[in-house]
Design brief:
alpha+beta; SH3 type barrels; 6-stranded mixed beta sheet; 6 strands
């Protein structure tokens, strides 16, 4: 009980603890205070953007950027195929091949050459360094929170929620697509099959002949006819009857 109270008190302290005010000299030409003309943020324009083909269909999404030795963006990593990230293939695309339009605040990224046949024929992008493991990411996150001493629990929660947003949206879209293309037709087909089976069973019950055979009524046996009695013969020497 005492440990639970202490834990709640610690969380409350982190939640309400204001950032410690520190007086420091800000170096020049190091930090940027606003977005300049012609500048854009990767998360707003590229990272997570849906890539459309020439027909306007979504063929993939941008997952990462490819930088050269001068830290300039040369291309992107695009995820294609799969379901909710599973079985997805990652291909590299030159930045110059993408058509990026920003009209009235709506950004559209297109790749006209992205036909189904082309994407199926492409080999997966080969990276030189292995991706970070979950353990490495957890250690980095713990160090990040430790180094940012002024970060409160609420801010950490909001940050995690913001980062999980695109992944959740992607999962919802994939789930909806799977329902519309696979689950819904299967349910409708199963319903039709059930109705047909019910109608067939009902029809069979209505037309099925009765299995009970009425008892046979024995036919009346005609009485046996009595054998005809032959007439008595009159003896030849018998005297004729007197009148």
């Amino acid at each position: 009980m005492q440990r639970g109270v202490l834990a709640l008190a610690a969380v409350a302290a982190l939640w309400t603890m204001p950032a410690l005010a520190q007086t420091a000299t800000v170096p020049q030409d190091v930090f940027l205070t606003t977005q300049g003309e012609g500048q854009y943020l990767a998360k707003d324009l590229l990272l997570g953007a849906k890539v459309h083909n020439a027909e306007g269909q979504i063929v993939g999404d941008v997952e990462d950027l490819i930088l050269n030795a001068d830290n300039q963006v040369e291309g992107v990593i695009m995820g294609v195929g799969g379901f909710a990230g599973w079985g997805e293939k990652r291909v590299g695309v030159a930045l110059s091949a993408l058509q990026i339009k920003n009209e009235n605040g709506v950004v559209t990224v297109s790749l006209p050459q992205a036909t189904k046949e082309t994407l199926d024929a492409l080999t997966a992008f080969e990276r030189k360094q292995p991706p970070k493991s979950l353990l490495d990411r957890a250690i980095e996150k713990a160090k990040e929170l430790s180094d940012k001493g002024s970060v409160t629990a609420k801010e950490a929660y909001e940050k995690a929620k913001e980062e999980a947003g695109p992944a959740l949206e992607k999962a919802q879209e994939a789930a909806k697509k799977t329902y519309e293309e696979s689950v819904k037709p299967a349910l409708e087909k199963a319903g039709e099959a059930t109705k047909e089976a019910y109608d067939a069973a009902k029809e069979a019950m209505e037309t099925k002949p009765s299995t009970e055979t009425p008892a046979a009524t024995p036919e009346a046996t005609p009485p046996a006819e009595a054998p005809a009695t032959p007439p008595a013969e009159t003896p030849k020497d018998a005297a004729p009857a007197q009148p």
